[in-house]
Recover the amino acids of this structure.
């Protein structure tokens, strides 16, 4: 189990050590301090990894809960809900390259980035390629991945139940 307080204690102990003496640092003290700092750094790295794992697992549990029981009101007009994140990915870069080259009639300027270019860091701008080659060719070269994603948004408006007696 992660001990965040333990990390705080280590940090406090290091800060309480004070100076290295009036005669300046001696090698043993410097090395001891370095070991303590490395120990503290390692503890913090482990804590960060653990917290990241817990956060990911908590988000998975929230998505499962919301899928089963609906949105969670978190107050002040906000709610947690499950949305989706779509990612378009090239199935095969060489196929996309060949397809773009054919439609562009060999014009290499189409590969520039920017407004009319087709490259980004992944390297394909899927929307630009779709527009250039058409839906049929695009479907042969790209796939869309959809992942559930926990989102925060405004509370949904709903009709409140009113009883008339």
């Amino acid at each position: 189990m992660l001990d965040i307080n333990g990390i705080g204690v280590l940090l406090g102990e290091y800060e309480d050590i004070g100076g290295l003496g009036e005669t300046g640092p001696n090698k043993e003290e410097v090395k001891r301090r370095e070991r303590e700092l490395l120990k503290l750094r390692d503890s913090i790295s482990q804590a960060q990894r653990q917290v990241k794992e817990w956060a990911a697992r908590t988000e998975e549990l929230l998505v499962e809960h919301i899928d089963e029981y609906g949105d969670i009101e978190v107050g002040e007009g906000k709610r947690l809900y499950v949305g989706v994140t779509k990612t378009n990915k090239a199935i095969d870069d060489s196929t996309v390259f060949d397809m773009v080259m054919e439609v562009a009639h060999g014009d290499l300027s189409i590969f520039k980035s920017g407004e009319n270019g087709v490259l980004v860091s992944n390297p394909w701008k899927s929307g630009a390629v779709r527009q250039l080659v058409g839906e049929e060719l695009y479907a042969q070269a790209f796939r869309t991945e959809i992942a559930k994603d926990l989102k925060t948004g405004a509370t949904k408006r709903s009709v409140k139940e009113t009883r008339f007696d």
Summary: The chain has two domains: 4-69, 75-154. Residues 75-154 form one domain.
